[in-house]
Amino acid sequence: MIQDYLDIEQANSLVTADISVANMTSEIAQSIVDELTERMRYAGGVNFILNMSAVEFLDSSCVGALVGFLQDLEHVRGRVALAQCQPNVAFLFKVTKLDTAIPLFDEIEDAVEELG
Questions:
Q1: Phi then psi for 83, rounded to 5 degrees?
Q2: 69 belongs to a structural domain
Q3: Nearest 5°: CA angle at 37, between 36 and 41?
Q4: Which are the contacts of 60, defined by CB distance < 8 A and separation ≥ 6?
Q5: How far apart are the C-alpha atoms of 90 and 34, rounded to whole Å?
Q6: In a domain, 61, yes or no
Q7: Over its length of 116 residues, how does the chain's per-residue pLDDT go in tens digits?
Q8: Does 59 map to a domain?
Q9: Segment holding 27, helix H or strand E
Q10: How many angstroms separate the CA atoms of 9 and 115, rounded?
Q11: Taking the model in full, what pTM does it have?
Q12: What is the CATH number of the domain that holds 72?
């Protein structure tokens, strides 16, 4: 169940999602994106911060799911950011240059300051 690896808090239009799974599969990534999309559509979520501190690995399909979510957010002029990424995850976003579209932050507070 998604509650086993996703904890969401929302303050107005800012949504913070703590992801607590070490190995993110495409199924997990898609269920997270589905949940965040629901927040966007029905709860007024516009800006999303994903706390990735527990995620040690994610495959390319996970990146695709996040990019798809980012495209959906364009309709509401929303943004998504990643915080506290493990080195492997940060490297993936930097080497693919996706960190220009999905910014990476060392601390959640910095992401909140930028998106909030």
A1: -130, 150
A2: yes
A3: 120
A4: none
A5: 23
A6: yes
A7: 688 999 999 999 999 999 999 999 999 999 999 999 999 999 999 999 999 999 999 988 899 999 999 999 999 999 999 999 999 999 999 999 999 999 999 999 999 999 98
A8: yes
A9: helix 26-42
A10: 15
A11: 0.95
A12: 3.30.750.24
pLDDT tens by residue, 88-111: 999 999 999 999 999 999 999 999
Q: Domain count of the chain?
A: 1
Domain housing 31: 2-109
Q: Residues 83, 107: contact at Cβ < 8 Å?
A: yes
Return the DSSP state at 3.
G
pLDDT of amino acid 116: 81
Q: What single string gives the DSSP state of each residue in 53-115?
A: TT--EE-HHHHHHHHHHHHHHGGGT-EEEEES--HHHHHHHHHTTGGGTS-EESSHHHHHHHH
Q: Which residue type sits at 78?
A: G
What one-letter code names the amino acid at 98?
L
The tokens describing 86, both together, are 């493990």
Q: Is residue 27 part of a domain?
A: yes
Element (H, E) at 13: none
